[in-house]
Write a structure and sequence with these properties.
This protein is of the alpha+beta class. 16% of the residues lie in helices and 25% in strands. The longest helix is centred in the first third of the chain and has 16 residues. The chain is globular and about 45 Å long.
């Protein structure tokens, strides 16, 4: 896939772009089947707010790519690496992790406003996500919203906990530093908020520095399913920090703090010019 100069310029200015029909139907169908299996099987790094429920359930699962043949093949054969690299203005795109995100109909829990970079052991302006819609979704059905341009200026916010409860697999984020995320919902008119209704196969590319979130799924009968893949560009450096995701840590890599993440076993390069 080739992005236009206008799309790349818009990503630089806004921190986010919507790419309709980025993924073909064969891929969305196969990834949807994979998501059903992922919801019904045990595994590590699952966050399930209401296990087994057909409504009011927020389910996420991460880091499946090494063991899941569908995701592994999608990363190698699909367009996400090329999309990410071009949007970031990078000559290459290394992969970080996959993130399956599902909200059943009538799910109250919203995805709180947050910024991704504090959760991850990296720094640099060329860190982004490619969020692929596997089902149609409106903003009211939990499609993504963003504070346009909030990736610029170097603001670094303290992570928010998702699906907060006593037993929580993301409690490591409590160790993180940073200023509190502003209460955007309390004064939405004060922020330049943009969002995108999406069709299955659409992609949203966004900077790890942009503030973003999503409403609960207010649909009465439609599940929202998305697969987000995380990407690292040329100026990314490995930077462990308090509160960063511990799944890939200092003991797992062959690079030092401040190095470009040239660790092919953990951060494979799936696209380059």
């Amino acid at each position: 896939m080739k992005l236009s100069r206008e799309q790349v310029a818009l990503f630089e200015a806004d921190g986010v772009i919507h790419i309709p029909s980025a993924i073909d139907k064969d891929w969305t169908d196969e990834l949807l089947r994979m998501s059903e299996k992922a919801m019904s099987t045990d595994g590590e790094w699952i966050n399930d707010g209401n296990p087994g429920a057909s409504v009011d359930r927020m389910f996420t699962r991460r880091y499946m790519w090494k063991d899941n043949s569908v995701i592994s093949r999608f990363l190698r054969e699909g367009p996400c690496g090329a999309i990410a690299g071009q949007a970031m203005g990078s000559s290459s795109a290394r992969f970080y992790f996959d993130h399956l995100l599902i909200k059943e109909p009538m799910t109250v829990a919203r995805t709180p406003w947050h910024q991704d970079i504090p959760y991850w052991p990296f720094m640099g302006s060329q860190v982004c996500s490619v969020w692929v819609a596997l089902t149609d979704a409106t903003i009211q059905g939990s499609a993504m919203e963003f504070v346009r341009g909030s990736h610029r200026g170097g603001k670094y916010y303290k992570p928010e906990l998702f699906n907060d409860r006593k037993s929580h697999p993301n409690s490591w984020a409590l160790e993180a530093k940073g200023e509190p995320v502003p209460d955007i919902e309390a004064d939405r008119e004060a922020f330049d908020i943009i969002g995108f209704d999406v069709a299955a196969g659409d992609a949203i590319v966004f900077s790890a520095w942009i503030l973003h979130g999503a409403q609960g799924n207010h649909s009465k009968n439609r599940r929202r399913v998305a697969l987000s893949t995380r990407w690292l560009g040329n100026n990314t450096i490995w930077q462990p920090k308090p509160g960063a995701d511990p799944i890939v840590g200092e003991d797992d890599v062959n690079i030092a703090a401040g190095d470009y993440p040239s660790d092919d076993s953990n951060f494979p390069m799936f696209w380059s010019l």
